[in-house]
Design a protein that fits this description.
single chain, alpha+beta, 3 domains, nine-stranded mixed sheet, three-stranded antiparallel sheet, 15% strand, disordered N terminus, binds adenosine-5'-triphosphate, binds magnesium ion, Glutamyl-tRNA(Gln) amidotransferase subunit B, mitochondrial, glutaminyl-tRNA synthase (glutamine-hydrolyzing) activity, ligase
C-alpha cells in the first residue's frame, strides 16, 4: 500500500487542501460519480505514491508460504484437516466470539513523536527521545495520523466522535519503556460501526447469505517495541516499532462460527487496505487479532453469555479459525465435565490443536487507566470527516462485484486478487489487462483460446505468479501494481498466447526467463523470435493421422466410447479421452501441438471412426 506523503497531509491540515491522488491506491475517484469502476480504473499511470515513501514489505513469509508451512506442520503433527466435517457447530451449544484487531496505520511518523515509522531499516534507527521515555521528553500528537485512522473507521461504518481523549494503560514490560501505553480507553475517536459479511467472504454456511457484525469502538494507540527471543533467555529489542500508530478495532460479541470470525478479520484487512489506512496485512505483521471466546447451552434462553477467555496475538486467518475451534471445544469439555470456565488469557501456536493458559484473572494486570495529563483532547472537524468520506475510493464489495460480473472471475479469485500483496496484486492485474487490451485492440481473441482476456490474465496474475513465489522470496510488488515481471511483459506473453502464436508451455518458460531477467524489459517478442519459439501448429491432417495411429492400438478404450454412444454407459469417458490426449501428445512433436486441438481432433475421430452414424461435435 502507498504511504500517505506527510507533506500532503500537512498541506491539508494547515491549508485545507490535499492531493488525494497520492494517498490512495491508483484509483483516485469517487464511486458516487462513476458510471463504472472499470471506466474509472483506467487512469494515468503517472499517478501513484511517491517511491520515497513506499514501505518495503517486512521480512516475514508471504501468505502462500505461510499457508504451506502451516499445512506441513499440521501434517507432521498427524492432524489432517477433515474435509466435509462440520466443525462450525456443536449440537446443544452456542459459541460467541468478539474480536480485537490491532492494525498499524499508514503514516510516515509515530503517534507522539516525529520519528519515522519504518519496518525494514536497521533496528533502533528511528527512535525519538519520547519513544524511549527519556526524562524531559513529552508526547507531541502528530495530527496526520488521524487521516488513515478516520478513513479506517469510516470504512467500518463508524460514527466519528467530535472529541476524543488519550489515556494511560499501565503495565511493566521491556517492550514499553514508559511503563504505560497511551491508548483511548474512556473516549475513543470512533464508535458504533459495523461490517457486512457475505457468503462469498467465506463465512460459515450456517450464517446464510450474509451477516452484519457490530463494531463497538475504534481507538488510537501506540505500538510496542519488537522483541526477538535469543538463546539463553536473551531478548533483542527494536524500538523502531515503539510508538508506531495503531488502531484497535473492537467488535461486539456477535460472531457465532469460527469460519465467520476468520472471514471478518480477512474482510477488515481488505477494507483497511482499500482506503489505504494500513501499512501491511496479517501475513506481514501489520495486523494482529485477539479473539474472545465463550460458549453457552442452547436450551436455556434466559442465560447470559458465558465467561470469555481471550487468545492473544493471532497472526493468520487460519490461526483465528483454528484457535476458536480449539478453545470452544475445550470450554465445552470443561463444562460438560461439571467444571467452570475461568476468565483467562490463553495462547496459541501455529500448527497446534490446543490453546494454552498464559495467565488467569488473578494474574491479570491492573492497568490503572487514567487520562493522560500531557495530552489535550483530539477534536476532529466534521469537514475533515466529510472530505475523507467523499474521497475514499472504490469499496471492496463493489470492486469484487465488478471483478465477478464484468471480468468473469470466480468470487474466490476476485477476493484473492484483492487480498494479495496488500491490495497491489489487483492493481497489477488491471495493469496487465490494460496493456493486453491495448495490444488486442478491437480484435477479441476469446474464440481462439476459449477464454476471455480478463480470466486468462487473472489466472496468470494469481496462479502462475503464485508458482514463482513458491520458489522465490518475493515478486517485489509495488503499491502501483508493478513487480519484477513488468505488467507490459506479462501482457506481451499473454498476447502471443491468446493469438496461439506460442504454447502455454513456452509462455510459462518465458515468464521464468523474464523473472530471472534473462529477457530484458520489453524484449518478450524479440526473445520468442530469437529462440524460434513461435508455435508452428500441426495441420488438421497431421493431427488426424496422429490420432488414428494412437486409436489403432487402444481398441479396449475405444469400446468404452462405443458403449457410451450406444447409451449403455451414462457418463462420457472424459478421463479416458484425456489419457488418449496424453498419448497423442507424446507420440507427436510436442512443441507443435496444442492439447486443446488434440482433444478436439480425438473426439471427432472417435465419433466418426469408432461410432459410425454419430455426428462430430467439433
Ligand atoms: N462473553 C463474551 N464472549 C465472547 N466475547 C466477548 C464476551 N464479552 C465480551 N466479549 C468481547 O471481548 C472483547 C473485549 O475487548 P476490550 O478491548 O473491550 O476489553 P479487554 O479485552 O478487556 O481489553 P484489552 O485486551 O484490550 O486489554 C470485545 O471484542 C467483546 O465483543
Ligand atoms: Mg482490547
Ligand atoms: Mg482484549
Amino acid at each position: 500500500m502507498a504511504r500517505i506523503p506527510t507533506t500532503e497531509l500537512g498541506r491539508y491540515l494547515l491549508l485545507g487542501q490535499i492531493n488525494r491522488q497520492g494517498c490512495l491506491r491508483r484509483r483516485p475517484f469517487q464511486l458516487a460519480t462513476a458510471t463504472s469502476i472499470g471506466q474509472l480504473r483506467r487512469v494515468s499511470s503517472s499517478v501513484g505514491a511517491p517511491t520515497s515513501s513506499v514501505p518495503t514489505s517486512p521480512t516475514t513469509a508471504p501468505l502462500r508460504k505461510q499457508l504451506k508451512d502451516q499445512a506441513k506442520l499440521l501434517k507432521a503433527s498427524g492432524h489432517k484437516k477433515k474435509k466435509n466435517v462440520d466443525n462450525q457447530t456443536v449440537p446443544g451449544w452456542e459459541l460467541t466470539v468478539g474480536i480485537e484487531i490491532h492494525a498499524q496505520l499508514n503514516t510516515s511518523r509515530k503517534l507522539f513523536s516525529a520519528a519515522a515509522t519504518s519496518f525494514n531499516d536497521s533496528p533502533n534507527s528511528h527512535v525519538a527521545p519520547f519513544d524511549l521515555a527519556i526524562p524531559g521528553s513529552q508526547p507531541i500528537f502528530q495530527p496526520e495520523t488521524l487521516i488513515p485512522a478516520v478513513r479506517a473507521a469510516l470504512a467500518l461504518n463508524c460514527e466519528i466522535q467530535h472529541t476524543s481523549r488519550f489515556d494511560r494503560k499501565h503495565y511493566f514490560h521491556w517492550d514499553q519503556p514508559a511503563g504505560y501505553q497511551i491508548t483511548q480507553f474512556y473516549e475513543p475517536f470512533a464508535r458504533n460501526g459495523y461490517i457486512e459479511l457475505m457468503s462469498r467472504d467465506g463465512i460459515a454456511a450456517q450464517d446464510g447469505q450474509g451477516i452484519r457484525v457490530g463494531i463497538q469502538q475504534v481507538q488510537l494507540e501506540q505500538d510496542t517495541a519488537k522483541t526477538t527471543a535469543q538463546p539463553d533467555g536473551v531478548q533483542w529489542l527494536d524500538f523502531n516499532r515503539v510508538g508506531v500508530p495503531l488502531i484497535e478495532i473492537i467488535t461486539r460479541p456477535e460472531i457465532h462460527h469460527p469460519a465467520t470470525a476468520a472471514a471478518l478479520v480477512r474482510k477488515v484487512q481488505v477494507l483497511l487496505n482499500s482506503v489505504d489506512a494500513c501499512v501491511s496485512g496479517m501475513e506481514t505483521g501489520g495486523l494482529r487479532a485477539d479473539v474472545n471466546v465463550s460458549v453457552r447451552r442452547t436450551d436455556d434462553a434466559t442465560a447470559g453469555l458465558g465467561t470469555r477467555t481471550e487468545i492473544k496475538n493471532l497472526s493468520s486467518f487460519k490461526a483465528v479459525e483454528d484457535a476458536i475451534i480449539a478453545e470452544r471445544d475445550r470450554q465445552i469439555a470443561v463444562l460438560e465435565a461439571g467444571g467452570v470456565i475461568a476468565g483467562e488469557t490463553r495462547g496459541w501456536s501455529l500448527g497446534s490443536t490446543e490453546t494454552r493458559r498464559l495467565r488467569g484473572k488473578e494474574g491479570e494486570v491492573d492497568y490503572r487507566y487514567m487520562p493522560d495529563p500531557d495530552l489535550g483532547p483530539v477534536v476532529i472537524d466534521p469537514k475533515l470527516v466529510e472530505y475523507l468520506a467523499s474521497s475514499s475510493g472504490v469499496r471492496p464489495d463493489d470492486e469484487t462485484d465488478e471483478l465477478i460480473h464484468k471480468h468473469g472471475l470466480t468470487a474466490k479469485d476476485a477476493i484473492s486478487l484483492l487480498m494479495l500483496d496488500n491490495g497491489a496484486r489487483v492493481q497489477y492485474f488491471y495493469n496487465v489487462l490494460d496493456a493486453l487490451d491495448a495490444r488486442l485492440g478491437n480484435a477479441s481473441c476469446e474464440t481462439i483460446v476459449g477464454q476471455p482476456a480478463s480470466t486468462l490474465a487473472a489466472n496468470w496474475c494469481l496462479h502462475e505468479l503464485g508458482k514463482l513465489t513458491e520458489v522465490s522470496s518475493d515478486l517485489d510488488m509495488t503499491p502501483d501494481g508493478e513487480c519484477r515481471i513488468r505488467s507490459a511483459d506479462l501482457a506481451a506473453i499473454l498476447y502471443h498466447l491468446m493469438r496461439k502464436e506460442i504454447t502455454a508451455k513456452v509462455a510459462r518458460e518465458l515468464l521464468w526467463s523474464v523473472y530471472r531477467e534473462d529477457i530484458s524489459r520489453g524484449g518478450v517478442t524479440d526473445a520468442i523470435a530469437a529462440g524460434d519459439l513461435w508455435f508452428h501448429e500441426l495441420s488438421e491432417a497431421e493431427y488426424t493421422a496422429l490420432a488414428d495411429t494412437v486409436l489403432r492400438g487402444e481398441e479396449k478404450i475405444v469400446a468404452e466410447f462405443t458403449r457410451h454412444a450406444e447409451g449403455k454407459s451414462k457418463q462420457y469417458p472424459q478421463g479416458k479421452l484425456m489419457f488418449l490426449v496424453g498419448k497423442v501428445m507424446r507420440a507427436g512433436p510436442e512443441q507443435r501441438m496444442d492439447p486443446a486441438s488434440v482433444e478436439r481432433t480425438l473426439k471427432a475421430r472417435i465419433d466418426q471412426v469408432c461410432v459410425p452414424g454419430v455426428q462430430t461435435q467439433g
